[in-house]
Each structure stands twice: as C-alpha cells, then as structure tokens.
Amino acid sequence: AGCEKEPSSYMWIYILLGNMLRGIGETPITPLGISYLDDFAKEEDVPVYVACLHTIAMLGPMFGFLLGSLCAKLYVDIGFVDLGSITITPQDSRWVGAWWLGFLIAGVTNFLAAVPFCFLPKSLKKPEETNNDKTSFDYSTVIMPCIFQSQLIYPFLSDFYTSLKKVLSNRMYFTLLCCSLLQFSSFIGFLTYKPKYMEQQYGQSTSKSNFLIGLTSLPPVSIGIFLGGLIMKKYKMSIIGATKFAFLMSFLAYTIALSHFFVGCENHVVAGMTVSYE
User: Fold this and answer.
1) Global pTM?
2) How many CA atoms lie within 13 A of 252 on its CB side?
3) Do residues 102 and 68 make contact, with C-beta atoms less than 8 angstroms apart?
4) What is the per-residue pLDDT across 189-214, written as a single tens digit (0 to 9) for each?
5) C-alpha span between 196 and 180 (Å, rounded)
6) Are 206 and 90 in contact (CB under 8 A)?
C-alpha cells in the first residue's frame, strides 16, 4: 500500500513561479528592444541589428542545451552523497542528472547580466538623422505612472484596448502573427520531444541527446537569422520584398523538413510485444 501512495512534493510550484518571474523579466527585451532599434537606428541598418538581437537570443538555448548535457552527466544529489557509492551510470534508465544545477548557473548569470542595465540613463536622446516619419513612443511616461498611480489604470487599459483592436485589424500583421504561432509551436515541439526520440530510437543517453541538439539544431538557425538580416540590408527590401523573401525561405524549409518522415529506426525487439517468445 505504501508503494501506491502518490508523491506529495510541491517543489514544482517553486519552479513554476521561478519560470514566471524569468518570463516577466525577459519579455520587455524583445518588444521594447526592437522598438528602440526601429526608432533610433538608421532604416537600412535596422534589419541587421534586429537579426543580431535574434541571433544572440538563439545562442542562449544552444549554450543551455550544452550546459544541460554537462549537468545530466552529474548525479542529481551531487554534493550531498558519496558519488563512489553510486552504482549506476548515465546510460542507465534509472539515472537522474543534476537538473537543478542548470537553473542555479543560469540564474546567477542572468543576475550578473542585468547589473549593467541599472547604469543606463532614464531617457535617451533621439539622433537627428532619424527619419521624421517614424513615431517614437516613450513607454515610461505611460506605463510607469499606471503602475504606481491607480487613478490612471483605467485610461491606460482603455487606450491599450483601442491599440490592440487597431493592431489586430491589420490583416498583414494578423496573418504574420498566425504564421509565427504555427512556426513557434512546431519549433518548441521539435526541441521538446527530439531528445526523447533520440534516446528511444537511437539508444543515446540524455546527456548526449542534449549535446547533439544544442550543437546541430540551434547554430544553423542563428546563422540563418543573421544572414537574412544581411541580405535584407544589402538589397534594401521593402515590406513586399521581405514578405516574398520570407515566403520563399519558409517554403524551402518546410520542403526540406519533410525528410524527417523518412528518418528513423525499426522498433526494438521485445519478446512478447514486437516478436513472439519463440
């Protein structure tokens, strides 16, 4: 009866809250960072700068997979038990790696990387070379007062609803949004389940699966993003030109991705399941 008792640990709540705080801290980087680049950089340089931003963002998961590969080789209770008494190896299905060590290292790294932001000025002067047709928006004048002054919450929400309705009524933006949702959904599923697939189909350890994915999947994406920014800058593509370019590259990518359906191994030979006992 004791073996049938369900686990009562609530440690997953701490992981949930930690990831929620991490997401809140990371969210402003992309929308506000891209808006800043679009407002303050020269028009022909914006694609390269945005490409650099996304390229660096892709390098993070790559190092994360490599770090996860290293942590998976270490036993989960490292520092608390005598490793000489551990009789199983990372190749054993009962092995549990030090998954918590990656959160600790990444948390300290994020904290150190956030320190320089404290020394940035509150407001930045806009260069005179910036095109006059670009409209800049000072988020601090609207968002910050709304956080600290309750009487401004309602006007802010009203303006936000109006802006959101106007943005979503843009057919091109809405189509791009739906396309991005589909792309990221497939990409996340690819990264989530491919390590397990490699473990089951190709007999690889968790550590080696993470290492191979971090080394083969993410660097090509980073290179592609950076090259795309350079190509857009060189040919000075308009919105229509960039749309055609994105459509062509996506079509080629999906065509090549179809080859995954033809890659795999036969099912494992298991007596009584895939083959008879005889």
Assistant:
1) 0.53
2) 6
3) yes
4) 777 788 888 887 777 877 788 788 77
5) 25
6) yes
- Residues paired with residue 75 on neighbouring β-strands, in sequence order: 97
**What stretch of H or E contains 107?**
helix 99-114
> What is residue 130's predicted lDDT score, i.e. its pLDDT?
45
User: Does 239 reside within a domain?
Assistant: yes
Tell whether 13 is covered by a domain: no
CB-neighbour burial class of residue 211 (10 A; exposed 0-12, middle 13-18, buried 19+): buried
Do the Cβ atoms of 94 and 88 come closer than 8 Å? yes
Residue 156 covered by a domain: no
Question: What span, in angstroms and rounded, lies between the C-alpha atoms of 156 and 222?
Answer: 37
Secondary structure string (H, E, C) spanning 199-234: HHHHCCCHHHHHHHHHHHCHHHHHHHHHHHHHHHHH
Residue 229 lies in a domain: yes
CA 189 – CA 178 distance, rounded (Å) = 17
| Three-state secondary-structure class, residue 75 | strand
Write the CB contacts of 235 (distance below 8 Å, at least 6 apart in sequence). 241
Q: Enumerate residues 6+ apart whose C-beta is below 8 A from 37.
A: 46, 49, 50, 53
What does the pLDDT look like over 111-159, one tens digit per residue?
Answer: 898 888 788 777 666 655 444 444 444 444 444 444 444 445 556 677 7
Question: What are the phi and psi torsion angles at 271 (to 5°)?
Answer: -65, 130
Residues 272 and 208 sit within 8 Å (Cβ to Cβ): no
Taking alpha carbons only, the member of 47, 54, 92 closest to residue 72 is: 92
Q: How many structural domains does the chain have? A: 1
Identify the domain containing residue 74 by its residue range.
Answer: 40-119+172-259
| Structure token digits, residue 232 | 């857009």
Residue corresponding to tokens 């996340």: 188
